[in-house]
Amino acid sequence: MEDYEFRVEGELHAVGTEQDSIYFRSDTPGESTWKGISFQFSTDLSEISYADIQNTSSYAVYSYYANPITITHSSFHDCNSTVLFFDDTFSQVTLSYLSIVESNGSHGGIQGNSTVLSMDNIMIQGTGGGYGVYYLGNYELFMDNVYVENFERGLVINSSNNFANTINNSRFTSNGHGVSLNNGRAVLDNCEIDNNDYGIRAEGNNNTLTIHNSQIYNSNDGIYVIGGNDHLTINTTDIYSNSNRGIYIDRNESSSTSSLHMDGSTVYDNGNEGIKLYIWDNYEIDYSLISTNIYDNNGHGFYNEAKGLTGVSLCHT
Description:
Distance between the termini: 68 Å
Radius of gyration: 21 Å
Helix content: under 10%
Oligomer: single chain
Number of helices: 0
Strand content: over 45%
Largest sheet: 33 strands, parallel
């Protein structure tokens, strides 16, 4: 079989069972000799269930200007590009109970561009490069019980701040950046972010990050924010045992608004400062720490280093 793709311009219903799965694979064992399944201008709901998809030379599943797609109870491995890529799809994509192994090393597990993307109960494993989940565009991302391990970036939210982008009950471990924001918005609840170079890294401008009931530990910096006009809210969250700082906020020169609000959280046992603020020429800055315990850090518990600073409101209890 030559390097063909399975293109869907109508609708596809590939529905197996747990006892009788559907296999999409190369006709030559171990070789990548087909281009996967492509939904382009599909006409109605398509679904893939209880499938095993492997040995693709391109994406395992790709969509472009497609109608809704649902993929459940399936596994993907030995694919030579981003495994699932939903590009300018402009409709609902639902992913549930999937196992994804990204073996190329430089691509990704799941990418959504301008797509309403919902995923739950998914394991995504990499080999040190690429990204686990990459989300771009002003639609909405929802993740629940998603495990992402061993990528350069575990979760990337880029230029997506019209909606909350909700991540619940998920774990990001052993990545370069566990969670990465660039002009993005995210709400994390009951998440575990551990053993990354950076637990959470927000860069660029206009990031809005809310964290509830989570643990961030065993990384270099637990949370690192560099840029301006960023707003960080942390509630009932533990940030601990990071080798450098628990939280490091490095504001760009002349950024106009910034805020950090913490309530009911703990920051402890970090290798340097618990919380470090490094601020240049900011205005309308609001930092508040309420019922937040900061202790047993090897540097300052709370260190505010500022130059040309005006309009600051700082409250901590």
